[in-house]
Structures are given as structure tokens and as C-alpha cells.
């Protein structure tokens, strides 16, 4: 997946409109070639070709041979040079012909727009640390950070069941790390979520009842059922689980037992 602004596609259409309208006497490059004034015919052609490449419009780019030849012909003109009558006519002919290919190819380009969610789209897709209380996200392992990010993206793009899988995996990674920090000796040999919480409940040093109840609730009602292939989530369920897991992870990391001795 590549994040791109659709403004570039609109600019491509605007460049076609601009170049089709060029006439005799229009500047190839402005006599004061600086800033926005430099974007005359030469700059518009160069920008058009660059955006075709950026937006992977391979068919139009291949069909733009005449436009590239035209650019080679005018690109070394002195500052302030202007189009001749024949050059303006040639450019209009090239662009008019190329527009047909551009429009045909553009019909196969689709944009997908995210819809509003209960959680900020910025937090879901980029600012993952803002999902947690201050100082919590930095404490996560790299795999937990990865899974939180993937869960956020899955919610943003309506992949609800995948979001549930990733946020539960992130939570389990934190559960294991929490266990490592509390239990230094005689740990359980198989580090499943259930084995960990069962062992913690028997220890003198153990998390608060609130944390233990939260972990058992998530494991019994979500972690275990989600492992079955029949499990499916809708987007509202996924967001609720996401928030529940974020809270559980935050509570573990904020607990005094998280601090290493």
C-alpha cells in the first residue's frame, strides 16, 4: 500500500488543460525564470511527465514519446523564449492525442477512502503512541508496536477480524513481558496466556485484581475464541476490543511491577 495525495491526479488534468491552451507567443520559460514564473510550457511538460511516472500511468507514459521529443526540442531555449505558431500547434496536437490515452487509463485508477471510526484516523494510521497514556508506547516491544500499528491500519481500512488478531497478539506480547518482569525464577515452561495468568494468581508478587480480571476476561472472551477459524468481527466489535486491549496494556505497563529490579 502506498500513500499518495489525489491532488497529483487533479494536477495532471490541469496540466493537460493548460498545455492544450498554449498559443503563439506564450513563454517556453519566463524572462524572469524564478519561482512560479518558471512553470511555463517547459516546466508544465516536465511536471506532467514526472507525475505520470509518480502515479504509475505506464500506458500514457509510453504513449508520450512525441511529448518527450517536443520537450527535448525546447528545453535548451534561452530564458524568455516563446512558442512559435507551428510549435504551439504541434503541442496542442500532441496533448489532444495524448489526452485520449490518459482518460482511458485514468478510468482504471481507483481511490479508496477511509470512513470515520470511533478512534481518530491519525492515531490509527500514524500516531500510534497517542493511543496510549504518555510513556506507555515506548515501553512496548518491537513486535507489540508492530501489531498495534497493524491493528490500527486494519481498523482504518475496515479489516475488522484482522484487527482483532493483531491487537490480541500485541496484548499477549505485553502479558509475556509483564510476566518476565514479575517472575524471576521457576517460570512456567509453556508461556501461554492461560498458563501465565494461572501462575501469577499463585504468586505473592502479583498484579492488582483489576489487571488480573481484565486479562482473564480478554483471554476467555476474545483471545481464545479468536483463534478459531469461525470467528469473525464487525468493525464496531473490533474497535471495542482494540480499546479494551489498549487499556489492558496500559495498566500493565503503568503497574509498579513493570519496573525492572
Relevant terms:
mainly alpha, 261 residues, Four Helix Bundle (Hemerythrin (Met), subunit A), elongated
Short description:
The protein is mainly alpha-helical and 261 residues long. 59% of the residues lie in helices and 0% in strands.
Shape: elongated
User: What's the overall average pLDDT, rounded?
Assistant: 90
**What's the main sheet like?**
none
The low-confidence parts are none
Going by CATH, the architecture of the largest domain would be Up-down Bundle
User: What proportion of the residues form beta strands (DSSP E)?
Assistant: under 5%
Judged by helices, strands and strand pairing, the structural class is mainly alpha
Instruction: Please report the distance between the alpha carbons of the first and last residues.
Output: 42 Å
Total domains: 2
Count of DSSP strands: 0
Overall CATH class of the largest domain: Mainly Alpha
N-to-C series of helices and strands:
HHHHHHHHHHH
Radius of gyration: 29 Å
Number of helices: 11
Residue share in helices? Answer: 55-70%
Q: What do we call the CATH topology of the largest domain? A: Four Helix Bundle (Hemerythrin (Met), subunit A)
